[in-house]
User: Which sequence fits this backbone?
């Protein structure tokens, strides 16, 4: 009897809370109807070296160069947005792909400054390197008016990038092993051509379809979204590409692992002239299987190789 | 005096009608201010950028647009090749501008004998005309054939619909992956920092830069006109951020005329260099220099007295050198400056070398003897120039100021001055035995205006515009100081400029 009472009690509680939650779910708040209020340009600043950017000074430039895609309200709803693939950045959620800071944190002013000047490859974001530094700094400040995050949070700390170790066949081999172990191939494809089994299912944080990077396309001048140097690729592993399925591996791999992965990824750029492909060519184009190092004696320093892990 | 009175009386009703017509045009423009146009400018719709991204005000380029052009109409992302475009994409833009304008200039007007009705003489009289009109029609088509292979073709008509090829060229860009190696072949605009083909002006005299076209009075050298598109081959190089730009072009000395109807073997060279600097809050400042030097024929072989097209020989030299400056004084105001020192060989100064006129499509229109309509004033072997003949030289200055109130509204003004420093005739002017008046042919050119784009998208180009131009040319009768008097021509113009 007590058992039945308990079940009934639980059922009633479940009903009450369930219906309560359900009712709450259906009881949507009335939207703020009517035309959008005029945009208020909050006095935000950016600091790039000794240059201080002011949001008020970028109002005209934002309209001229940016609003067509990113929208007057920074909500990625400009008149061109519907035609673009990938979609433009939504500044109202303040999630940025190219950062030197850990995943989930705000980028530094310099990160945004560099993104404007570098452009974003494989997207419609041009290389705005004809702007003066002051113009770019002002635009960085302007971007901040769209999200309250910039008022309440500080930018993350830039990660430390250790010196790059020499490129060796062993580092390439270990990078290849990590590429398999971390299941990078599921999105980027076994040959880095962006055709992994999951590639067609990927979406960004706004549910827009998104394609993984094709390493094999292009030649020596092919670019990555967040920079072209090995340091930039390293940064991608450790910071992730926020707003996309590309996670941060900062908690999964060690710095040396990341460098090995960089060296291997460079070999997937088959048409690129670089030291990684030279090393690979010297090995007759064959990456030897990676041999796990034997466990170190208990007294010896810990091996910095990662135990691995997927995503 | 009587004629003045007649003229004065005649002009009163004209003024009233002009004012009424202007008022009507203004009301029409204001009433239609809420309308929009559906337009598909070729590059903007390819890349999804607003017109304002590349144009300070269409069609004048800003620094980003200049870089886009220097890269061969490429943003240098991975989507420049046409394979990335929807197969239905056709890179073409049409442009024609309906206008209302008022033109006022001096003309020689016949006077009649009131008894016999026969022409008795002529007087100089101001003629003012008003009315609705059209500009010519441009078919702009350009873009990439493949990454780093670009083209531009512009068949263009006058307002009657007679077409010619204003621009036709193909370009190989970023050879060996370097922005410093770009080669273009065909008919193209010279690398003028202040582009005449992208001018914001549409009046007859304000729509061209006088400094780019100045020719001394009676000078026969029509070839050295920097404002005209020229036929030739151009090397162009620039830094990645387009701050540094250089170019060198080898051109036929025929002012862009097709058909090899002028000099048998005459060429010109056009060389430019410019450098931009960051000036903090002021913006990007750019300075540069150019030189246009070449030779052109002064003598055509004849057949039965008729100059033979393409037979021009007896080359003589000419040069145009100058300075460019583009100065931004904050986000709203910029000033463009062009200076020029020009010089023609004395043979040109005496009228020799004028091209055999073409119908614009390569067919020579000279069918009679030298010196008649369409035919050059021909030099002859052993020709001795008149006593006192000298190489005409001059200096030119162009100042164009723009106030960009917003990306949609721009106010603009131009002042140009062309000043002769040495006349071709040191003596013997018009049978007087004396030299030409020192100011003969001088020009003052003033324009003011505005352009207003009621909307800004990547799919449309539309602007209301208004302009006034006053053109003063020292070609009138001599005054008491033995100077040529200035003759004024003015034009007031309103219209709708659109491309789609």
Assistant:
């Amino acid at each position: 009897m007590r058992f039945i009472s308990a079940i009934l009690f639980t059922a009633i509680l479940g009903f009450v809370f369930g219906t309560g939650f359900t009712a709450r779910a259906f009881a949507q708040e009335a939207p703020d109807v009517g035309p959008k209020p005029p945009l208020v340009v909050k006095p935000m600043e950016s600091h790039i070296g000794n240059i201080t950017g002011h949001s008020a000074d970028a109002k005209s430039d934002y309209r001229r160069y940016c609003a067509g895609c990113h929208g007057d309200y920074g909500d990625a709803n400009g008149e061109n947005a519907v035609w673009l693939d990938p979609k433009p950045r939504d500044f109202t959620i303040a999630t940025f792909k190219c950062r030197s800071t850990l995943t989930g944190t705000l980028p530094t002013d310099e990160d945004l400054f560099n993104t404007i000047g570098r452009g974003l490859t494989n997207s419609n974001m041009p290389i705005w390197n004809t702007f003066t530094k002051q113009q770019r700094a002002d635009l960085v400040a302007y971007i901040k008016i769209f999200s309250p995050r910039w008022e309440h949070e500080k930018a993350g700390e830039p990660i430390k990038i250790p010196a790059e170790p020499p490129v060796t066949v062993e580092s390439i081999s270990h990078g290849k092993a990590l590429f398999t172990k971390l299941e990078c191939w599921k999105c980027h494809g076994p040959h880095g051509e962006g055709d992994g089994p999951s590639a067609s299912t990927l979406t960004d944080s706004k549910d827009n379809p998104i394609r993984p990077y094709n390493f094999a396309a292009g030649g020596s001048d092919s670019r990555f979204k967040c920079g072209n140097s090995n340091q930039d690729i390293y940064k991608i592993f450790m910071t992730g590409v926020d707003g996309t399925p590309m996670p941060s591996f900062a908690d999964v791999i060690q710095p040396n692992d990341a460098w090995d992965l960089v060296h291997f990824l460079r070999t997937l750029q088959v048409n690129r002239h670089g030291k990684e492909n030279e090393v690979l060519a010297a090995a007759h184009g064959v990456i030897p299987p990676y041999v796990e190092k034997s466990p170190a004696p208990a007294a010896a320093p810990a091996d910095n190789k990662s135990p691995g892990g997927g995503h | 005096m009587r004629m003045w009175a007649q003229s004065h009386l005649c002009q009163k009703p004209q003024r009233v009608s002009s004012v009424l017509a202007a008022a009507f045009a203004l009301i029409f423009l204001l009433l239609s201010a809420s309308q929009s146009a559906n337009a598909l400018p070729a590059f903007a719709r390819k890349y999804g950028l607003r017109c304002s991204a590349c144009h300070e005000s269409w069609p004048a380029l800003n620094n980003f647009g200049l870089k886009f052009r220097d890269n061969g109409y490429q943003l240098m992302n991975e989507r420049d090749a046409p394979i990335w475009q929807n197969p239905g994409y056709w890179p073409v833009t049409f442009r024609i501008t309906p206008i209302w304008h008022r033109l006022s200039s001096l003309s020689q007007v016949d006077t009649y004998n009131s008894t016999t009705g026969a022409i008795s003489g002529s007087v100089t009289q101001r003629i003012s005309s008003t009315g609705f009109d059209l500009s010519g029609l441009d078919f702009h088509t350009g873009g990439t054939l493949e990454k780093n292979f670009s083209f531009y073709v512009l068949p263009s008509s006058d307002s009657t619909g007679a077409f010619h090829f204003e621009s036709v060229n193909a370009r190989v860009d970023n050879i060996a992956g370097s922005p410093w190696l770009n080669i273009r072949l065909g008919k193209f605009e010279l690398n003028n920092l202040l582009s005449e083909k992208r001018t914001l002006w549409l009046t007859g005299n304000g729509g061209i830069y006088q400094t780019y076209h100045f020719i001394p009075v009676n000078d026969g050298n029509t070839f050295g006109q920097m404002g005209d598109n020229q036929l030739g081959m151009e090397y162009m190089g620039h830094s990645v951020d387009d701050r540094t730009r250089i170019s060198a072009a080898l051109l036929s000395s025929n002012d862009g005329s097709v058909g090899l109807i002028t000099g048998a073997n005459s060429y010109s060279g056009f060389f430019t260099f410019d450098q931009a600097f960051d000036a903090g809050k002021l913006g990007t400042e750019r300075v540069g220099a150019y030189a246009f030097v070449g030779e052109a024929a002064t003598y055509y072989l004849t057949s039965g007295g008729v100059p033979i097209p393409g037979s021009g020989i007896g080359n003589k030299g000419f040069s145009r050198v100058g300075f460019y400056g583009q100065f931004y004084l904050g986000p709203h105001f910029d000033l463009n400056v062009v200076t020029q020192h020009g010089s023609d060989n004395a043979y040109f100064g005496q009228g020799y070398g004028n091209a055999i006129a073409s119908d614009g499509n390569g067919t020579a229109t000279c069918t009679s003897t030298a010196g008649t309509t369409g035919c050059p004033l021909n030099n002859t072997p052993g020709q001795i120039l008149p006593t006192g003949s000298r190489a005409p030289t001059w200096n030119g200055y162009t100042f164009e100021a723009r106030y960009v109130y917003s990306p949609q509204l721009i106010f603009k003004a131009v002042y140009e001055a062309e000043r002769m420093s040495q006349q071709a005739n040191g003596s013997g002017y018009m049978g007087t035995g004396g030299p030409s008046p020192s100011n003969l042919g001088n020009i003052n050119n003033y324009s003011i205006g505005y352009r207003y784009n009621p909307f800004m998208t990547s799919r449309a180009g539309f602007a209301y515009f208004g302009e006034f131009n006053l053109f003063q040319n020292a070609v009138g009768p001599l005054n008491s100081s033995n100077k040529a008097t200035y003759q004024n021509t003015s034009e007031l113009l309103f219209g709708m400029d659109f491309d789609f």
